[in-house]
Design goal:
5% of the residues lie in helices and 54% in strands. The N terminus is likely disordered. The protein is elongated. It has a 5-stranded antiparallel beta sheet, with no helix packed on it. Strands 4-3-7-42 form a 4-stranded antiparallel beta sheet, with no helix packed on it. It is mostly beta strands.
């Protein structure tokens, strides 16, 4: 896996011990001694066990070897991407035993069998990108299924409330693509940050989480909890039809100005509460005073901003916009959201700078956008986008016009035909090979069309689907999915596959 959209792991298939010179000399000797080779092989075979002898191509690399029946079907994989040192060696070549059983451990039926292999030479695998999920843990341990909301930590560091199946987690420092995960209660509905700790807003309690130690450091019960915010040791909590204001740990119940309150925010000097129809009140010195902000429409979310300012996410005349106001209701700036951001549903303002985080619905999926205010021109605010991450739920995927898109059903890829470099020991060997990608419990592998694994592409677990497309004359673009993210890899140098036979037997 790599930083951001690149994957970190790059692999090269090559032998650790050069043997080209030795194998070339050995091949010349064996060319004059075919009878001796067969005699030695026959003497060393025991009942039910076949000892296979072969001469690998005089190239550096790793070896995959399989046993095939008379119809050319792969019966057993004996070695996959194995170092040459893993084989027994003798004067007549390299040796390996086959116990006469198939891949399921059952005795193979009587008949004629042959052994064939491929030496994988200078072939490269490199990670390219993630698709359909930008919220990927680089360790590969977890991938978020959904992003419910996002909040600022200090500066432009970002944390996000993510859903991982039935669990919810806090993703910390998510803006640089390398985040730490912390388990949160399954009923967490939102998150806030007070400068040192994250506040998890659950159905009936508030849970404080330290983002550094990733541990819970406090919890307080509030029945029917709807919204909460904290800043500099002050709290405002909306639970049921009751408001609570807290300073230095002492809760004070407050009769609300209206019963339909849905939002609250804690500012430097006071708190703010609001209803969905756009009515806003300031709470200070145990009193509520209305804040007139002009035509408001439907209020979708509210957030504290820099200083004693408030950010409002509004829907006015079927258009969504952002409005920043002070505690007198005076407009500081307003941004009519472009069409691509018209599905914004959650808002978080920075208390340190002119930055915003928006959480959008993609239907299906979610997207988090980071915006930074630059300046005003001709009474218009100019914003720069500094964060753009999304997650799209999917089961299967397809590649269309170079783009990865969700799909309703699995679409298989055709095998790719690669023209090979000549094996100097096998003048009659086929000069081409058909390859594809297979997946098992160890990850994904480049394989022959008959299923012999040649080279591991990734160790990703629980793979649901693989796809591949030709990339030049001897390369593949490989796509691997565990149904939460699609990983893209590039494989080059497949012409450096060397086929060889390891004999036939009854």
């Amino acid at each position: 896996m790599c930083d951001d959209t690149a994957l970190y792991r790059t692999a090269r298939a090559s032998a650790r011990h050069p043997r080209s010179f030795f194998l070339g000399i050995l091949a010349l000797i064996l060319a004059w001694l075919p009878g001796a080779a067969r005699s030695e092989q026959a003497e060393e075979e025991t009942a039910g066990t076949h000892q296979l002898m072969f001469i690998p191509p005089p190239e550096e690399g790793v070896i995959s070897l399989g046993v095939y029946d008379a119809d050319g079907k792969l019966v057993r994989v004996l070695k996959r991407a194995a170092e040459i040192d893993s084989f027994k060696s003798g004067l007549n070549g390299l040796f390996i035993d086959w116990d006469g059983k198939d891949s399921k451990g059952n005795p193979a039926p009587a008949g004629k069998y042959s052994a064939r292999g491929v030496l994988v030479g200078d072939v490269n695998v490199s990670g390219q990108a993630y698709h359909l999920n930008d919220w990927v843990d680089p360790s590969g341990a977890t991938q978020a299924k959904r992003i419910l909301s996002a909040a600022f930590l200090n500066g432009k560091s970002v944390c996000a409330l993510a859903e991982f199946g039935t669990n919810k987690q806090l993703l910390v420092d998510a803006s640089n693509g390398k985040y730490r995960t912390t388990d949160l209660p399954a009923d967490t509905n939102g998150i806030k940050f007070d400068g040192s700790r994250v506040l998890a807003i659950c159905n009936d309690r508030l849970v404080q989480v330290d983002p550094i130690t990733r541990s819970s450091v406090g919890e307080k019960s509030y029945p029917n909890l709807h919204a909460a915010d904290q800043w500099n040791g002050k709290w405002i909590v909306l639970a049921g039809n009751q408001l609570y204001s807290s300073s230095n740990g002492a809760d004070q119940g407050i009769p609300p100005p209206r019963e339909d309150l849905a939002f609250c925010a804690q500012l430097d000097s006071s708190a703010v509460v609001a209803s969905r129809n756009g009515n806003i009140w300031r709470f200070q010195d145990h009193q509520f005073s209305p804040i007139e902000t002009g035509k408001s429409g439907q209020l979708l979310d509210i957030s504290a901003g820099k200083g004693d300012t408030i950010w409002l996410l509004l829907e006015v005349d079927s258009r969504r916009l952002l409005r920043q106001v002070d505690l007198s209701g005076q407009h500081i700036q307003e941004l009519d959201l472009p069409q691509e951001l018209q599905t914004a549903r959650k808002l978080c303002g920075s208390r340190d700078d002119e930055d915003l985080l928006l959480t959008l619905d993609l239907n299906p999926g979610e997207r988090v956008i980071g915006l930074h205010f630059q300046n005003s021109k001709a009474q218009q605010s100019v914003w720069q986008k500094w964060l753009d991450r999304s997650v799209t739920p999917f089961r299967y995927f397809d590649v269309k016009n170079g783009q990865i898109v969700p799909a309703q059903e699995k679409v298989e890829s055709p095998t790719a035909v690669i023209q090979l470099t000549e094996n100097p020991l096998e003048n009659g060997a086929p000069r081409s090979i058909s390859v594809g990608v297979i997946a098992d419990e160890t990850g994904a592998w480049i394989s022959t069309s008959d299923g012999l694994p040649l080279l591991q592409v990734t160790k990703t677990k629980n793979i649901v689907q693989t796809k591949w497309t030709a990339d030049g004359a001897d390369g593949l673009q490989v796509f691997v999915s565990d149904a939460s993210v699609v990983e893209e890899y590039r494989v080059t140098g497949l012409k450096n596959l060397y086929r060889f036979d390891a004999g036939s037997f009854d």
